[in-house]
Amino acid sequence: MDDLIHRVSSLPENSMLFYLSIFRDGSGKAFRSPDALALISRQANAPIYSISETYMGSGIVGGHLISYSAQGVRVAQAALRILAGEEPEDLETTEGSGNHYVFDARELERWGISEKNLPPGSEVRYRKFCIWEAYRWRIVGVVLILIFQTLLISALARSLRKQRQADRALRDAERKYRTVADFTHDWEYWSAPDGSLLYVSPSCERITGYSSGLFIEDPSLSREIVVPEDRGVWDAHHHDGQEELKFRQIQFRIRTRDGNIRWIEHACIPVIDEQGEFQGFRASNRDITERKNAELDAQRHREELAHITRIITMGELATSLAHEINQPLTAIRCNAEAAQRFLSSPSPDLGEVKQILDDIIDDDARVGEVIRRMRALVKKEAPRRDAVDLNETIWETIALVRSTSLLEGLNIRAELDNDLPTVRGDQVQLQQVTLNLLMNAIEAMKDNPLGSRSLIVKTSLANDRTAMVAVTDSGKGIGENVMERLFEPFFTTKTEGLGMGLSISRSIIKAHGG
Q1: Which domains does the chain have, with CATH numbers?
Q2: Coil, helix or strand at residue 310
Q3: Residue 484: CB partners within 8 Å, gap ≥ 6?
Q4: How many C-beta atoms surround the C-beta of residue 47 within 10 A?
Q5: How far is it, in rounded angstroms, from Cα 376 to Cα 387?
Q6: Rounded to two decimals, what is the model's pTM?
Q7: Measured between alpha carbons, how far is 231 from 240 in angstroms, rounded to an integer?
Q8: H helices within 182-211, ranges in order?
Q9: Lowest-confidence region among 161-170, 188-197, 300-309, 458-467
Q10: How far apart are CA 475 and CA 494, in angstroms?
C-alpha cells in the first residue's frame, strides 16, 4: 500500500485516477475498499473517479454513479409485482434507472472544479454548512433593514442637529433683535406663524398708549386700533402676507388710547430659517404723523396755488369770455323784443314766435355752457379720483379756448384716440393742465403769420397703464437755456404771469401717477 500511495502522490500533471476496489495490498494486508480509497485519496495529487455510489464520501470526485441501493429497490419492486401475478415479460425496464450524477462538494473544491460545469440535474453532497448559502435572502433582508435604519437614524440625527442649530440661531437672533428693538424709537414686534406675538417693543406704549403686554395677550388689538376707514388696507396687507412671503410696506391711521389719530408706516419681512421654514414676521411701525401732516399741508398749499392759477387764467380770458357771453345775451334780448312785437299784433304768427323762442333757448344754452366751463375751473373743491374720459375733457377745454378768440387765425386740430380707456383722476385738475398747455401754445404763436397758427392736441395709449396727451404748436420753440428751467416755480419768459403754470401742471400729473 505504501508503494501505491507513493506512486499516486507523484502523478504527472493533468492526470486522473479511476478507482474500482482494493481488498488486500501486495503484502497481504486486508482493507475495506472504502478505507483503502480514503488512504489513497488523502495522498493523491490527481482527482479520483469511480462508478459506484458506495465510494461517495471516501475521496472520489463523483460522476454518473451506479446506486446499488436504488437498483435493489427497483428489483424488489419488480419481484413484488411478479408475486402479485404479473408476468415477467410484461414488466417495463428502464435503461440506467437508478443511476445519476452525484458529486462530492469537498473534492470539487479541492480540485478547483466549478459546480457551474456539472451536468444539469447533478446532486452535490457534503457541502460545508454556510450561513450565507443557507440564509442568503434573510441575511440580505436583515442587512438592508440595518442599512435603512442606519440611514434613517443618521438623517434624523442630522435633522435634529440642524434643528437645534436653527433653534439656537433663532434664539440668538431673537436676543439680538430684542436688544436693538428695546431701545429703538419705532414700535417693533415679532409674530409667530400662527399669528401670536412673540415680542413687542416698549415703544408701542409711547405711540399707541397700550403696553406691550396688552398686545401680546390680545394680538387682535393691532387691528382694532386701526381706524375703520383704513382696516381694508390692513386686512389686504395681512392676507397678502400669508399668500406671498416678501417684504411689504403700507400706511394707515390708528386711534390711540387717548383718542388721538396717528399715521403709521408699517413694514414687515418674513423670517425664514436655514431649512427654509417660515418662522413668522418681523414688523416695524413708525409714527409718521408729523411727516404726513406736513405732506397734507403741502398738498393743500398746492391745491390753493392751483386754484389761484385757475382764477388767474380765467382773468386772462375774462375780456374774451365777456365778449363771448355778450353776443348770445344781445341775441336773446333782440329775439325777446321781436317776440313781443309779434305777440302784440292783432294776428301774431305763432310759428315765427316759436322759432324766435327756439333761438332764445339755443343762445341761453350757449351762455350756460360757457359759464359752466368757467365755474368748473374756478370752483374750489377737494381733489377727487373718478373715472375721467380724457378725450371729453380735452374737447371741453378746446371749446373754451376756441370760444374766447384769443388769437386771430388760430387753427386747433384734435387727433384723439377713440379707443382710449378712461383714466382715474380729478377732471378739473386734468382740464387745468390741458388749458395751461393750450394757453402756452397760443402765447408761443402770437408772432406767427396768420396762416401759420396751428395747434394739434393728440391722445394715445403709451402702454397698458399710461395715457399720453401731446400738445404741439407751430411756434418758434424753446431755447436750451429755458428748457433746463422750464418747470422751476416762478420762472417765466412772459412779461406777465407768476411762472407757476407748468410747475403746478407737473405736480398735478405726478400726483396722478404720471
Answers
A1: 2-128 (no CATH), 182-287 (3.30.450.20), 294-511 (3.30.565.10)
A2: helix
A3: none
A4: 19
A5: 17
A6: 0.39
A7: 14
A8: 203-208
A9: 300-309
A10: 15
pLDDT of amino acid 339: 75
For cell 341775441, what's the residue?
331
The secondary structure of the chain in percent helix, strand, coil, rounded to multiples of 5, reads 50, 15, 30
Among 332, 320, 347, 198, CA closest to 271? 198
Coil vs helix vs strand at 489: coil
Show the cell assigned to 481: 437755456
* Angle in degrees, 0-180, between the axes of helices 289-344 and 427-444, rounded to the nearest 10: 80
Residue 62, Ramachandran bin (φ over 0: left; ψ between -120 and 50: alpha; else beta): left
Which is it for strands 48-49 and 17-18: parallel, antiparallel or unpaired? parallel
**Residue written as grid cell 482493507:** 31
CA angle (174, 180, 183) in 5-degree steps? 130
pLDDT tens per residue, range 234-265 = 888 876 555 566 778 899 999 999 999 999 99
State the greatest distance between any 2 C-alpha atoms of the chain, in Å, as a whole number: 186
* Residues 493, 499, 501: CA angle, nearest 5 degrees: 120
Task: Show Cβ contacts of residue 402 under 8 Å, excluding neighbours closer than 6 positions.
Answer: 410, 412
pLDDT in tens, 74-91: 778 778 888 887 877 777
User: Residue 375: which residues within 8 A CB-CB, separation 6 or more?
Assistant: none
3-state secondary structure 106-169: HHHHHCCCCHHHCCCCCEEECCCCCHHHHCHHHHHHHHHHHHHHHHHHHHHHHHHHHHHHHHHH
